[in-house]
Structures are given as structure tokens and as C-alpha cells.
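In this supplementary section we document a worked example of the pipeline. Step one takes a protein sequence of length 370 as its only input; no multiple sequence alignment statistics are reported here. Step two produces a three-dimensional model, which step three serialises into C-alpha cells for compact storage. The input and output of this example are shown verbatim.
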Amino acid sequence: MNLIRNIGKIHLFWKIYMPTILFLILYNEYLIHIFHSLQWAQIECKTDRCLKVLLVADPQILGNTFDTKLYWPLANYDSDRHLSRTYRRALQHTTPDVICFLGDLMDEGSVATDVQYDEYFARFANIFTQPTADTLMIYIPGDNDLGREGLEPISAENVQRFRQYFAEQPSWELLGRAKFYNINRVSMTLPPADDLNYDAQSRSIFLSHLSLLKSAGEFSAQAVDAFRPDVIFSANDHSSKVATVPKSRLLMEDVTHSPLNVERNKRHEVAVFDLASLRLQQRLLEILVPTCSYRMGAMKIGYGYAVLDGDTLKYTVLWTAQRYYQLASYSLLIIPLKLLCGQIWCALFKRYWCCCRPRNRTPYLPLHAN
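The serialised model returned by step three reads:
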């Protein structure tokens, strides 16, 4: 009874404010992830050779060097936590056979010391776990992992360190289904010339951090001629786009990528591509996967989800919550708490520190006329 009486004495503002902020926390940290995942498209397999691929682009685990603000530990924690939650939702939705990480795995990978790199890798592995022992995990480097970000030189030590930690290979093969090629436009390296896909039933998939069709040069043309891709998955742009271009005009055209799954009424549509028809027409298909990290400043973030089923490629984006909106809502609702803390501070310490405390002033003496 005393508790009920005490609650009854609370000001009406706080009776409304406290449940509101509790609901906001529940919504921002749990319900919003469920809400977004319920909107994701389901892609059904038609054949027993169906291959489900989850594409993770530009996670860029934050480091401890570039951001020197006082709140950087909290910022790193919140970014890691958001990535972990959205990644787990994507795994539950897709149950992928292959997970491809398209570079820029760490924000400070190219400049980190060995001790820092070990710490960043532990954080990365804790966020992006391998769901099952049979899931193929593929990692390719980006410019933040090797160099060239801000014209950094690429050192042999950075290349070797990435290979050691992430088991980078020239290619990865799933017999009878697909072969994934590591086309590294950052370091300008290709798989060995004899590393061809000899299985006519298996699809050739290019993985590249930088777009191979945008401002294509001799490197892109050489890769296409040598390994004949059915589809190219790239990253780096932090946005969802697609482009097709005739192979014969690769070096002649300035390829422009079109937005994919970006419009509000088309965000969760499934794009369908006939790979056999594209190959017959000698056309190259490239899909740019958006970043999954809100710290990249992109307003739309998510994961790519591709299903290769025979001659058909189905692709959609698993859009996730934009964390900046959630943090902004916290900032607005915390203002009353700041004001309350200020009042308590003044009440407790106004005698010594509060600038607004009442002061005893000596009245001015009247001026005497001479």
C-alpha cells in the first residue's frame, strides 16, 4: 500500500516519461530488428543444386586510433552490437551455404599494430560467427585492410597478415555448384592462370571489393577474359546497385550502375537474372552490395542475399534498421533526465558551485549631495 501511495505522489510527467523511455529501449534494441526481418523476402529453391549466398560488405570494425573522442569505447561497443544483432538475424533468415565478406573488414586494418590487429580480429570473429561447420566462409580484403585508403602504400606485411588471419585464397570451389574467384583490384592480383572452372554445371562468381565494371581497365578485362564470370559481386560504394554491360564494350563504355532495391515500394523485391541468357549474349552482370555498418554514414544499410538455382540468379537486399535514427531518439528523450540531474546538482551543491544560487548583496549606500 505504501508503494502504491508513493507511486501516486509521482508527478504526472514522470508517470508518462518513464514508461515511454522503457518502451523506446525495448523497441530500438529488440522489436525493430524483428520488424525489419519480417519484411525480408523469402527465396525458395527449385533444384537440388541450389546455392544460398549471404554477402557482407564493408563492416569496417572500428579501431582505437582514428577516433580520439572521449566516448569512443561506447561507440565501438554500440557498432559491434548492432552488427552482431543484424548479422544473426540475416543468418536465421537465409541459412546460407556460403558467406562472402567483400572487403574493408576493419576500419584500421592497414595501420594497426600487431597487438591491435589481434584485438580487432577477435572482435570481428565474435561478431561474424560461422553458423555451422559446413558453411563456407570467404574473406577478401579491401583498401582499409591492405592500404590505398588515403593513398596508403600496400605493404607485403599487410597482405601476408590478412592472409594469415582470414585464410584468404585465390579461389574457393563447391564442386558441381559454383567457384568463387578472388579478383583483387586493390592489390591488382588475380588467381593463377590455370585456376579455371572446368565444370560446365558450376557457376563462376567474381568477388571484388572495388567495382570491376566502373572505370574498367586492363586489369578488369584480363580477369573477365581469363575466368569468364557469370556474376560479379562488389562492394566499396556502400550502396545497392546493379549494372550489365556487353563484354565487347568493357573498355569502351563508362558503366553507370542503377539503384537496386532502393525505392520504398521495391525495397524487398527479388531481382531475377537469367545467367544462361546473359552468357549467350556475352553480357557482364555486376551487383554492388550495400554496407552493413551504420558507421559508414549511409542512410540505407543491409546484407546482400543471392540464390543460384540452376541458370537463375535471385537476389535481394536484407535491409536493417538505421541506427542513427535510434540514437537520435535517445538523445531527444534524455533531455528531461539532463534537466533533472541539473536540478539535483544545484540543490545539493549550490552553496559552493551553482552559478544560479541566491547571493547576499550589500545594498548600495545613498549618494550624499555636497
